[in-house]
Write a structure and sequence with these properties.
Layout: H1 2-22, E1 29-33, E2 37-39, E3 44-49, E4 56-62, E5 66-71, E6 79-84, E7 93-101, E8 104-105, E9 112-120, E10 125-130, E11 139-145, E12 152-157, E13 167-170, E14 174-178, E15 184-194, E16 197-202, E17 208-212, E18 218-219
Parallel strand pairs: 2-9, 9-16
Antiparallel strand pairs: 1-3, 3-6, 4-5, 4-7, 7-8, 7-9, 10-11, 11-14, 12-13, 12-15, 14-18, 15-16, 15-17
């Protein structure tokens, strides 16, 4: 554990040296806890990490209204927490961090998209739409059905939407899952949204459990 921390520290120092040589301040990092997909009415904390010795840190929110939150570090503070309580559609959208040090502004962080679910009160239904055609137990098509005219559909594997890497987004309601591995079991949920407000999702569907004995899962 000590070796890992030492190596990580060396990597950070090397990165800061590279940024210093290029005349640019290191980019801050940003993340959300418990995750980037939050149900309406829940709380979330956004964290920003900076190098030591910064003067000011700002968290920008690009949503229905542009605004920012500002924090002044205490002593050698490097991690800043911004608590957002009772999430609504107003709090959804894109967040960035940036900071000042030595009178210079840093580059902005990578973007963090906070999604709020349950803004649209419809609950989609997730079903197995069709069985295999010509390749037994190899292809499965899932249908995320809604009554409203949504044009974005989101399928989340393992029933977990908290992290973007668990979800697949597309403009039609059918999801093809192919090449399923032996004994593989997974749970899925789907959501629906609109192209003009992709950070606002419907309620989640009921979980759908799949257990297929052959092949390997791949997202198409």
């Amino acid at each position: 554990m000590g070796l890992v921390a030492t190596l990580l520290g060396l990597v950070v120092l090397m990165e800061q040296k590279i940024w210093a040589q290029s005349g640019l301040l290191p980019q801050p990092s940003i993340w959300a806890v418990p995750g980037a997909v939050i149900s309406t009415g829940s709380d979330v904390s956004i964290f920003c990490r900076t190098p030591p010795g910064v003067t000011t840190l700002r968290l920008y929110h690009y949503g229905p209204y542009m605004k920012w939150f500002e924090s002044t570090p205490e002593e050698a503070q490097e991690v800043f927490e911004f608590s957002l309580q009772y999430m609504t559609h107003i709090s959804a959208g894109i967040y960035y961090c940036e900071y000042t040090k030595g009178g210079e502004w840093s580059q902005i962080s990578d973007r963090l998209e906070l999604v709020v679910t349950g803004v649209y009160m419809e609950t989609p239904s997730l079903t197995v739409d069709s069985g295999p055609q010509g390749f037994p137990e190899r292809n499965v098509t899932l249908l995320c059905h809604t009554h409203s005219p949504f044009n974005i559909f989101i399928l989340c594997r393992d029933g977990n939407a908290s992290f973007p890497q668990n979800c697949s987004h597309q403009s039609h309601s059918t999801f093809l899952i192919s090449l399923v591995s032996p004994g593989h079991r997974r749970t899925y949920r789907c959501f629906a949204s609109y192209e003009h407000s992709p950070s606002l999702w419907s309620l989640p569907s009921d979980p759908l459990k799949l257990s297929i004995p052959v092949w390997r899962i791949a997202w198409l």
